[in-house]
Amino acid sequence: MTKKFYVTTPIYYPNDIPHIGHAYTTLAADVLARWNKLNGKDVFFLTGTDEHGKKIENVAKENGKKPKEFVDELIPKFKEAWKKLNINYDYFIRTTDLEHEKVVKEILQKIYDKGDIYLGQYEGYYCTACEAYYTEKDLINGCCPIHKRKIELLREESYFFKLSKYKKKLLDFYEKNKDFILPKNRRKEIINRVKEGLNDLSISRTSFDWGIKLPFDKKHIAYVWADALTNYYSATRINGKEKYWPADVHLIGKDIIWFHTVYWPAILMSAEIKLPKTVFAHGWWTFNNEKISKSHGKVINVDELISIAGVDSARYFLFRNTVFGEDGDFSEQALIDRHNNELANKLGNLVSRVSSLIEKNGIKKCENRLLKQLKLREIEKLFENYEFDKVLNEIFGFVDVCNEYVQDKKPWESGDKKVLYELADSIKAIAILFWSFMPSTSDKIAKQFGFKIEFDGIKKPLNEKNKIIKGEILFKKI
Ligand code: MSP
Asked: Of these residues, 37, 130, 250, 282, which one is catalytic?
């Protein structure tokens, strides 16, 4: 039976067009989805938008629109951006989808019937930009620790989820499932915080109405996170995708790890639904070492990102330049340098030199001794550990091996068909391995050398009858 693989991205607030931060997680999910597809798995890749809540209600109002009308205009921008970046998701969920709303209500009702939800009074701080509750000690000079803006003091009737009741169960779960929270350093942070104790979670609001009504009290709107987190599960209940639950990995940014590793598993435990296997939190991108922020004009939206050096170079750069899981600094120059020095000079040159020499001289099948230097097992392990920068480093190491071989054997002098065969066969392996990161470059190489992008093709010898042509330049220097 084919193994399934279910990967998700956070669902984004459609309060503006998508930027590099949103693109990063969605690209990472695309890389994982492609890699697992290549490995023969039955993949389900989910992304979407988080459309309810006060924050969306507010921006819609500022734009003189009804919330639904406002988000309806932005959703195509997300879909277009993912298409431009060559992101191949399987399903796009919107929290305003009726099927999703139905599942949210069903879960809340179940938890309520069980006695895990009670009516109380919420008194405390709330940051609408984060859509998150804060306590006095979280604040910095009376402001939200993330947005540094003045924070609202809320006092309203609210339903509470008995989160405190799940403290021990959560700690036991983390203990038994060492890969539930990744990277490891984040795991320790969460465990320590949970050990300090958990407050019950306010899961409804009454002071606005853009959201899902609680099934047991229509005056109350579900807290946007209780609504949003459920998307991962509800998407599998739409179109008969049940077989994909539980998720194999929820990819998220480090800022929303608490919601995903504490609230989400506790809600699932209470609703008696299986828990996801892994939540992986990546780091944050800064822009020339400053926080990416709209108010400071330091946002790189998707079109800007692509315009610097093209789609594949951007995809390559984001995973090559920083460790997935740690913060990274984005600079246009660093992207251009990698594009020129690595993709154009090394990869592009290798492919163009070898293909044009083959056009002239042809190839003769023989054992490819170069392949012994390709560490495929190592690459597979690195992928499993989400070490994308090291995966790329390994593949590039093999590109270097091939370039050295060209220098060493001088096939432009000898016209040696066997050497050219070894190089063409190695380029096949390189293209297949790069496909998850740079799909259109790999597809171009595959077409040029006449092979298919398939995992077995890495080791399966290239057919010497293939017509190999000198194609277009893969990466133009900038
Ligand atoms: N709607 C919630 C998620 C709900 S998931 C059930 C949300 N949306 S968001 O649009 O504000 O952010 C989505 C993701 O983008 C987060 O994972 C966040 O970490 C990521 N990023 C936003 N800015 C970022 C950077 N500058 N760098 C990297 N990722 C960043 O939160």
From this structure: 130
- Dihedral class, residue 100 (left if φ above 0, else alpha if ψ from -120 to 50, else beta): alpha
Residue whose C-alpha is closest to residue 461's, from 373, 367, 398: 367
- pTM value? 0.96
What is the helix, strand, coil percentage profile of the chain, to 5? Answer: 50, 15, 30
Which residue's structure tokens are 């083959």? 358
Q: Is the peptide bond before 439 cis (omega within 30 degrees of 0)?
A: no
Which two structure tokens, joined as six digits, stand for 363? 């190839």
Any atom of ligand 1 within 6 Å of the Cβ of 182:
no
**C-alpha distance from residue 26 to each of 20, 33, 39, 46, 397 (Å):** 10, 10, 20, 9, 26
Measured between alpha carbons, how far is residue 398 from residues 204, 404, 412, 427, 428 in Å? 55, 10, 21, 9, 12
Residue whose CA lies nearest to ligand 1 atom number 12: 12
Please count the other Cβ atoms lying within 10 Å of the Cβ belonging to residue 416. 18
Q: Residue 407: which pLDDT band, with cuts at 50, 70 and 90?
A: very high
Would you say 291 and 249 are in contact if contact means Cβ atoms under 8 Å apart? no
C-alpha distances in Å from residue 146, one per residue of 87, 117, 134, 293: 29, 29, 11, 11
Q: Per DSSP, what are the bridge partners of residue 213?
A: 221
**209 by DSSP, 3-state: which?**
coil
Residue with tokens 């190491």: 397
| Active-site residue, selected from the candidate residues 66, 178, 219, 291 | 291
The one catalytic residue in 37, 105, 144, 417 is 144
CA distance 127 to 391: 39
Clarify whether 127 is annotated catalytic.
Answer: yes
Asked about 52 being catalytic, the answer comes back as no
What tens digit of pLDDT does each residue of 19-49 get?
999 999 999 999 999 999 999 999 999 999 9
Banded pLDDT at 238 (limits 50, 70, 90): confident
The helix-helix angle for 388-409 and 311-320 (nearest 10°) equals 110
Instruction: Give the Å distance between the CA of 432 and the centre of ligand 1.
Output: 30
Nearest CA-CA partner of 330 in 20, 4, 13 = 20
> For residue 72, what are its two tokens?
């309806």
From ligand 1's centre to the CA of 148, what distance in Å?
Answer: 17
Are 210 and 52 within 8 A, CB to CB? yes
How far is residue 10's CA from residue 256's CA, in Å, rounded to a whole number? 9
